[in-house]
Structures are given as C-alpha cells and as structure tokens.
Design brief:
The protein is an alpha+beta fold. It has one domain: Peptide deformylase (Peptide Deformylase), CATH 3.90.45. It is built from 3 helices and 7 strands; from the N terminus they run βαβββββααβ. It has helices spanning 27-40, 132-145, 156-170, and strands spanning 5-6, 45-47, 57-61, 76-98, 101-119, 125-131, 180-181. It is globular. 34% of the residues are buried.
Length: 190
C-alpha cells in the first residue's frame, strides 16, 4: 500500500525517532509499504518519520543509479536502529532533494565515507562502511531519524532563497506527483 509522505512542517519530521525491536506491531507490513511508497515517488531512500512513524527505521535502494564504469555499485537495504560510528574523508558537495520537501533541491556537503552499525530486516546486526553516493543517501536518511532535514545543511544564501517556498509547504500549500500529507495548519486567506 502506498503511504502518504509527510511534508515539511509536520512536527514528526523534527523529532528524534525511538528505537524499535522485533515485537514492533506491523513492522513487516510497514517496511513493505515503505518500499512501495518510495518506488512510487521515484525516491532512493525513505525514513519511517516521513510516513508518520517516529521510529529508527529507513530504507535505501541505490541500485538504479549504478554507473557503467562501476565507480558506483548500488545496494538495497533496510536499516533498523542505525547508529553512526564515524564519518571520514573529504567533504563533497552534491545536490540533494527530499520527498518531504517537493520541488526544492540544494547542494549539501557531506563526508565521503560513513561507518554505520544497524540491524537489517531480519534483525541481524550489520556494521559496514559506505562510500560516495551510497554513504550520502544513508546520511540523508539517517538525518531523518535524528529529526534533521537536508535544508538545515544548506548554505545561508540558499536558505534565504528557499524561505518562501518552505513557508508555503509548511502552510500546506504544496503539490507532488506522489501521495503526500501536507501540514494541517493551512489557513484560509480571504
């Protein structure tokens, strides 16, 4: 089932998510619905807070952005209770977007390597180092479970340029070509 993606302005997007265990009610169905939702929206990652669940869960699939030179090998995984261990390497800039903030993109600097510990969808512990675009997508989704949006990483000038657009989204004035749940504070101006 395709779930609506919560948009900028919803409080859940700014909360630090809580850990979960195998007994979390409906986890398997939620993960399945998140995959369907992410693919429907043409995303490469989706965090549980973006679909209304303040839990430490996100999914990533970068396989469709593999390149011919094998400089980027994509992967697909579920991340439960992820914890960053270390971020290393040179910071590099890349234009990011977010399904919760339609039609806004901006250059974000992130370290090129991420060492992370997490549970997979079978609750087996994994500890891996990711690089390049894979690291970036995980860093972006990890930020969601920490209550951080990519717009907070933008340079001051870019933040000023998108301020009105963000305010419109926060007020519920937003459209996307996928299912969304705009913020409910929309006001009638007349």
């Amino acid at each position: 089932m395709i779930l609506p993606i919560y948009t900028y302005g919803h409080r859940i997007l700014k909360k630090v998510a809580i850990s979960l265990d195998k007994s979390y009610d409906g986890l398997e169905g939620l993960v399945k619905n998140m995959w369907e939702t992410m693919y429907n929206a043409k995303g490469v990652g989706l965090a549980a807070p973006q679909v209304g669940h303040s839990i430490r869960l996100f999914i990533v699939d970068t396989t469709h952005i593999e390149d011919e030179e094998n400089e980027h090998i994509g992967f697909k995984s579920v991340f439960i209770n992820a914890q960053k261990i270390d971020e290393t390497g040179k910071e590099w800039e890349y234009e990011e977007g977010c399904l919760s903030i339609p039609d806004i993109r901006g250059d974000v600097e992130r370290p090129e390597r991420l060492h992370i510990r997490y549970l997979d969808d079978n609750f087996n512990q994994q500890e891996t180092t990711f690089e390049g675009i894979n690291a970036r997508v995980i860093q972006h989704e990890y930020d969601h479970i920490e209550g951080v949006l990519f717009t907070e990483h933008l340079k001051p000038l870019k933040k000023r340029r998108i301020k009105r657009k963000l305010e419109s989204i926060r007020q519920g004035i937003v459209e996307a070509d996928y299912a969304i749940r705009p913020n409910a504070i929309r006001t009638n101006r007349g």
